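Quick one: examine the sequence and fold tokens given here and explain what the tokens say about the fold. Here goes:
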Amino acid sequence: MPREDGAQGKRGGRWLLDALLQNAHFAGAAFLFYEDWLLGSCGIVGLLGVLAACLALEAWRISPTCSDNFWDIVVPVCSALAVVSALGARWWHVAALRSLHLCVFSANCLVTVGVTIGDRDSAWGTDEDMADPR
């Protein structure tokens, strides 16, 4: 039975406001990446670096996304690396974009692997996982 004081409507309005704010952030980021293509490309290359490191760690039977350090350290640091490298390239007029993208990719891979391997909370493979499958 719905409440008489209108609490249901306030809760629905709050959900709508949260959804609008979240989509506004996505729209703002998309517009920023459209306007500053170097920042967008560094962000995409950084994301690819994190994904490549995660796939490599998964191949070693280490699950990087199960750790809190991945979400608390790796994601913000890699995002900051992409932004700082894009701004630094603009500041110092770097024209070698392939080298810049390779540096961002490599740095994000190294940060992801370094933090994940150094974190014992990651879901390391158990002895049963490492056993011979015969």
About this structure: Residues 7-35 form the longest helix (29 residues).
